[in-house]
Amino acid sequence: MTNITEGIKQVGVFVIHALKGYEYHEKRIVELFKQKNIDFEFVTDGDASLLNDKIIGQYFSPDIQSKLSLGVTSCTLNHIHAYEKMVQRNMRYAIVLENDPFFLTHFDKKLQRTFDQIKQLEPGFIVSLENSTLTFPSFSQTRKGKYLYRAASGRMAGAYLIDLTAAKNILNDLKNNKCHTVIDWWHNSLIERNIIRMYWVHPPLFEQGSHNGHLSSTISSKASSSKRRIAWNLQKVYKMYFRRLFKQKQIISE
């Protein structure tokens, strides 16, 4: 793993992926990240084709197969494997992405500014980098020059940064409290139990293709379509400029 952008060192980039069925996503990632000069690693160790009852029981609660499809379980496990790789390699930070990321405007500049403020945080955090839920701090909650906002929940798990302490805390908790739900909701459980802290970066750095209508998802039946793209853009305009007139309840005042 090398730098994402000049001056940002020791950052792993992990892309959650499936071994088969998403060749277009894979080709797109390889080409896109080459253009950005970003080193990355696909995480496929938890692929559905490799799962069995023993592996599932090692990481998940006994009732998980009645709650999650095999594909969702696989996706969640790949996130966990990314944390394991991070800890094994003693990476200070890692960016974890699902395999449909779109870089938003001025990505490099915003990422550098985000890192400048991440250095000031107490270890043990996840930073949501995406806009997948179209939830943002309100106008009244944002401050000029401030990019990180403490939050009571995540914004899904399509694009986030995690530090080494948070990865260790999650894996230590996993020994006694097996994962009981999809990765997004599990993050929220970890936040509620004070295993990790959550921050939202604003403005966001990534957008998921499975949400904006440009790509299908490895765990969703929704196909890409112009209708979905139009609907997404209309929602984004409303929630970016009108909904933010009202206070965002998930933001924690500090």
Could you characterize the architecture of this molecule?
The protein is α/β, with parallel strands linked by helices and 254 residues long. The chain has a single domain (11-130, 139-208), classed as Spore Coat Polysaccharide Biosynthesis Protein SpsA, Chain A. It has nine helices and nine strands. A seven-stranded mixed beta sheet has the order 2-1-3-7-5-8-6. Strands 4-9 form a two-stranded antiparallel ribbon. Helix 1 (23-35) links the parallel strand 1 (11-16) and strand 2. Helix 4 (70-88) crosses helix 6 (164-176). The protein is globular. It starts with 10 loop residues before the first strand and ends in a 13-residue tail after the last helix. The model has no long low-confidence stretch (mean pLDDT 91).
Describe what is shown at a glance:
The protein is α/β, with parallel strands linked by helices. It is built from nine helices and nine strands.
Cα-atom radius of gyration: 18 Å
CATH superfamily: Spore Coat Polysaccharide Biosynthesis Protein SpsA, Chain A
Instruction: Please indicate the count of domains.
Output: 1
Tell me the major beta sheet.
7 strands, mixed
The CATH topology label is Spore Coat Polysaccharide Biosynthesis Protein SpsA, Chain A
Write down how many β-strands occur, each being a DSSP E stretch of 2 or more residues.
9
- Poorly predicted ranges (pLDDT <50, ≥5 residues)? none
Q: Strands of the largest sheet, in order across it?
A: 2-1-3-7-5-8-6
CATH class: Alpha Beta
Please name the CATH architecture: Alpha-Beta Complex
% residues in beta strands? 15-25%
Ends apart, CA distance between termini: 34 Å
Element-by-element helix/strand order: EHEHHHEEHEEEHHEEHH
What is the mean pLDDT?
A: 91
What is the number of helices? 9
Shape: globular
Helical residue percent band: 25-40%
